[in-house]
Amino acid sequence: MRYPLPVLFICGLAFAVPSPSGHVVFERRQVEPHGWVQSRRLEGDFMLPMRFGLIQNNLDHLDDMLMAVSHPDSAGYSKHWSATDLVEKFKPTTQTIEEVVRWLVESGIPHDRLALSINRGWIHFNATTAEVEELLKTEYYVFTHEDSGVEQITRMEKHIDLIMPTVHFNHVPSPMVQRKRTGGLGALESQPGPHRVEEDVTVIPTLAKCDMLITMECLRALYNIDHTPVATEKNSFGIVEFTPQTYVGSDLDLFFENFSSTQVGTRPQLVSIDGGELQTDPSKQGFKYAAESNLDLQYAMGLTNPQTITLLQTGDDVIGGSFNTWIDAVDKSYCPLNDPVLDPVYPDPSGYNHPPSCGIISPPKVVSISYGQDEASVTTRYANRQCNEYAKLGMMGTSVFYSSGDYGVAGNYGNCLFTHCPTGKIFNPSFPSGCPYVTSVGATQINNGSTVHDPESACQRIIYSGGGFSNIFSVPKYQSAAVHTFMTDQTPPYSSSLYSNDGKSRGFPDVSANGANYVIAIGGKFATVYGTSASSPVFASMISLINDARLAQGKNSVGFINPTLYSDKFTSAFNDITTGGNPGCGTKGFNATIGWDPVTGLGTPKFRELLAQFLSLP
């Protein structure tokens, strides 16, 4: 495996020129993203596609509205919203639009260059670098990625929620794409170290070897998964992949030949987002490019057979995709005009030369994403804007799962944030796992010599379950009691100089599933892989099966499940994991303990009890 060259962190994090009277600092990055270096000032005549996200109406009621359809004690449980109702409820006010337009015009941007998105959420215009720098009283620079050489540009408060492009690093190459090429958060790697792979494994399906080789048979026995879908036409299950990560059909067939023979020849339903395509280049069908997608699909398809899996293949092979781009495809209210204003920028003359994919498919009832990035690589405004969209997906009845990471309390590549230059020891939480409106999934393992009937521990074989506390998001109401109990009864031995230890921050993961020794077919043979990349689709598969059972009874999907999972009546539906930890940043990290903890969350599922509890809800 080849890592990017080390990046030198810089003390002092001001990324805008001093603001004159009347201007305030709008956003800052917490740290410089790993692997990127500032190379030059952006040319003054460069044309920037500016996108101003307007403050949405009624966001102060967003949490309450989501809880009204998600909390098991609510009379409105599972009475989900339509996409049209959501747009109407949250569209910015006329006053907000008029105020921002007036400010832009008075600042020298002609009115005829301004465009308002259909959902009234964004104002778009093209402007030169010189115009934008004068407008925002800032400077734009070009950053270069050390490995790929790819370049990225980065850098009225009352009515503006987000300005793009400014200081975000979710553009090219996509953090998800780059990470999956070289290993990292939630990733799979082919060399010793985190996420080791053992190739050419001899597989003899037997429950006696589950401590060394995890198969679907092991998972079914471990979590008592015993439901066969019957309402597949009503149900939907999406797996998100970011180009160039794509599955290989012959590997799917090899896997199914051995573990689910009736599925040989079966493929996921491809939804191409911004030019996402399956890989046809033989040189890009090996472990480096196909392992993640092969893993996700082999287990999601196998565990939910005969449910059709929707593959949300995101981004072309030139630029790639980002979390925003898959959300755009399922949530039209998040999109701007059909214009190249999202990250990454489409149309792309050298790749997908069409408008961005916007609202091209209804959101699947369950979506699993085995990717993530360091929370420190995004700004607070950006993180909150995206997080609110996950809440809206929950209001429409979609459950969104993200893997929590594989480096314990550290971030991608084991990186930590710095206290004093030049060393870094501060815990580095993951995004979007820290968003309170997604379900973050950590990893467990069957200990050596143990069976599927013995207690698991936190994963400490090759990888460490990602977990900790967000530096951006506050603890949600549904989790406050769990976090309070953990902080009171366990009191981690670290000060506020290492992490947000006041008990007021969102903790993650929420739940866990096995993440060690997975047998996958890759490159025409079998290998074992490790990571929360496996845990997320496995847990999501169980929720998809639960949706199937509810739909068969004429009920709705479960939607956002966190308030339900944290409720007292669901305590018996989890195997509490009480051993192991998630070290990182020169510490032992946190410990798995009785109750919720920032290593394995609430624990691993007891599928039959989880199913029974969800079926008892309206």
UniProtKB/TrEMBL annotation:
Its EC number is 3.4.14.10. The active site is at E292 (charge relay system), D296 (charge relay system), S533 (charge relay system). Residues 1-16 form the signal peptide. Residues 213-617 form the Peptidase S53 domain. One of its GO terms (biological process) is proteolysis. It catalyses: Release of an N-terminal tripeptide from a polypeptide. Binds 1 Ca(2+) ion per subunit. Its main location: secreted. Keywords: Calcium, Glycoprotein, Hydrolase, Metal-binding, Protease, Secreted, Serine protease, Signal, Virulence, Zymogen. Its cofactor is Ca(2+). GO terms for cellular component: extracellular region. InterPro entries: Peptidase_S8/S53_dom, Peptidase_S8/S53_dom_sf, S53_propep, Sedolisin_dom, Tripeptidyl-peptidase_I. Ca(2+) binds at D576, I577, G595, D597. One of its GO terms (molecular function) is metal ion binding. Secreted tripeptidyl-peptidase which degrades proteins at acidic pHs and is involved in virulence. This is tripeptidyl-peptidase II. It comes from Laccaria amethystina LaAM-08-1.
